[in-house]
Structure prediction request, 400 residues.
Amino acid sequence: MADANMTTPEHGVTANRLLVDAAALFRGRGYEGTTTREISDALGIKKASLYHHVSSKEDLLYDICLAALNDVEVGAKAAVSEATGPSAKLRAMVHGHTISMLANVDFSHTMLTDMRSLSGERLEHVLQLRDTYERWTEQLIRNAQKAGEIRKDIKSRQLTLLLFNLLNWTMFWYRADGGLDPDQVADLITTLFLDGAIPR
Amino acid sequence: MADANMTTPEHGVTANRLLVDAAALFRGRGYEGTTTREISDALGIKKASLYHHVSSKEDLLYDICLAALNDVEVGAKAAVSEATGPSAKLRAMVHGHTISMLANVDFSHTMLTDMRSLSGERLEHVLQLRDTYERWTEQLIRNAQKAGEIRKDIKSRQLTLLLFNLLNWTMFWYRADGGLDPDQVADLITTLFLDGAIPR
DNA sequence: GTCTATAAATCGATAGAC
DNA sequence: GTCTATCGATTTATAGAC
Prediction:
């Protein structure tokens, strides 16, 4: 869902719809594979009218990446702040992250796969935000390791990479109309990450 | 590595280099974001000379997807055929898949993220090959479940999706010059998938 | 805030000489 | 098998009327 906190205050409603429609197109055909013509068609305006709301196509990608990162981070941190104990906080992170990511799957998908099309400073900024979030996650894992609730024979960095493998690729097969709702997806990821596939 | 079995016999050496160089560019800038001019520059020939070897840019993408799928399937099936027992075969699948995928990471990355740019029949063909491979993997999991070596409280379909989450996203962070070699990556994925992050 | 019209550049692909 | 030259279409973006 594209709710109010996904855009900065100075943006109007059309600019909001612009991001949502662009993200849906970018997810389906890629940023480079989507033309400004297709975006304006989706909004029901002419191509030139887009430039009243944004100053370039890349602006759309940049705003989508920032919104996607912000939503997931806000969702994860809210969930973690309500949990008590190292492994409970880790479970909460997976749950909050997954719910936010799947609620804005067009944004998350675009951010993760088309980020590379951003130029210079903008790419660096998005990468820095992503890295900061990954380090925050790694700290959750390290805390759980110190408490003896997560195995210590695999480095926290590598456990973090494996956790994001589980989280990120979900966007490629998740369908809102499919057999699983976001809560069930979050539970699956949590269960496999923590318990593994061999019976305990 | 781009070895001999990655191309069909009728292709010459230039056509082979063409695939390798194109896959590297596609991984870095995306299929839609890469121009035929960039591809010809990488080969040291003029843009028009490309069309002596391939009849369209999309041909390159199609051939890369087929080669990527074939390499991973061949690697995984060879490993599985040498293993004995349901869970040993599952471990072998992860190992063979990971080694082949990381040895041709430009090809795998391009196949998994830019497949969507294929048109009509070609997209269907690639999707069908991928689905067949996924079903073969799910059968390995089902066999291990029947033998009691894999938990039965999660459906084989969902365990398969989670396993491919672990396998596929690895392409986004694996670096040949990084701290982990393909064998270590395969062991990490196997260990987490089977045993989980909580100490046993 | 949307429109028509168009600029300026680049795209994939082709023709034909060598 | 590679080249020069070029076609026709399409691209992002701008100018200026309404």
Summary: Residues 35-37, 47-48, 50-51, 55-57 of chain B lie near DNA strand C (CB under 10 Å from a C1'). Chain B has eight helices and no strands.
